[in-house]
């Protein structure tokens, strides 16, 4: 699956026009998803799920990195939430490293 097709579908779902910033955000999310799934490319059967997850991430403004969950000032304490926005939604597409080589 080409990144351009994913970008086009995500933009249509969110009624947004293409610009370099949103394109970079979508490409970053695609790379994060590939890393999360231990894959090298998005397969055709994953297309709808990946587009939906990326669309939701953009709507919620979730992009790259941890979000601040709590903050306090006295002696400074910052807690970050690093829960994956993909958790549970893309897990069925995960590849277990080593298993792919055994199947060949």
Describe the structure.
- There is one protein chain.
- With 104 residues, the protein is mainly α.
- The protein is 45% helix and 11% strand.
- The chain has helices at residues 3-13, 20-37, 47-59, 99-103, and strands at 67-72, 77-81.
- A two-stranded antiparallel ribbon has the order 1-2.
- The model has no long low-confidence stretch (mean pLDDT 80).
Helix content: 40-55%
Structural class: mainly alpha
Mean pLDDT: 80
Number of E strands: 2
Distance between the termini: 22 Å
Give the radius of gyration: 16 Å
Q: Give the biggest beta sheet.
A: 2 strands, antiparallel
Proportion of residues in β-strands: 5-15%
The H-and-E topology, N to C, reads as HHHEEH
Basic shape: globular
Please state the oligomeric state of the protein chains shown. Answer: single chain
Low-confidence spans: pLDDT under 50, at least 5 residues? none
- Number of helical stretches of at least 4 residues: 4
Strand order of the largest sheet: 1-2
Summary, kept brief:
By secondary structure, this protein is mostly helical. It has 4 helices and 2 strands, in the order H-H-H-E-E-H. The protein has a two-stranded antiparallel sheet with strand order 1-2.
Descriptors for this entry?
104 residues; mainly alpha; two-stranded antiparallel ribbon; 2 strands
């Amino acid at each position: 699956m080409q990144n351009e097709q994913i970008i086009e579908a995500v933009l249509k779902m969110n009624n947004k026009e293409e610009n370099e910033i949103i394109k970079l955000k979508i490409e970053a999310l695609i790379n994060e998803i590939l890393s999360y799934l231990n894959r090298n490319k998005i397969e055709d059967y994953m297309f709808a799920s990946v587009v939906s997850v990326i669309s939701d991430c953009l709507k919620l403004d979730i992009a790259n990195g941890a979000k601040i969950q709590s903050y306090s000032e006295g002696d400074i304490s910052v807690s970050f939430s690093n829960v994956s926005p993909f958790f549970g939604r893309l897990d069925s597409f995960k590849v277990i490293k080593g298993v792919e080589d055994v199947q060949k």
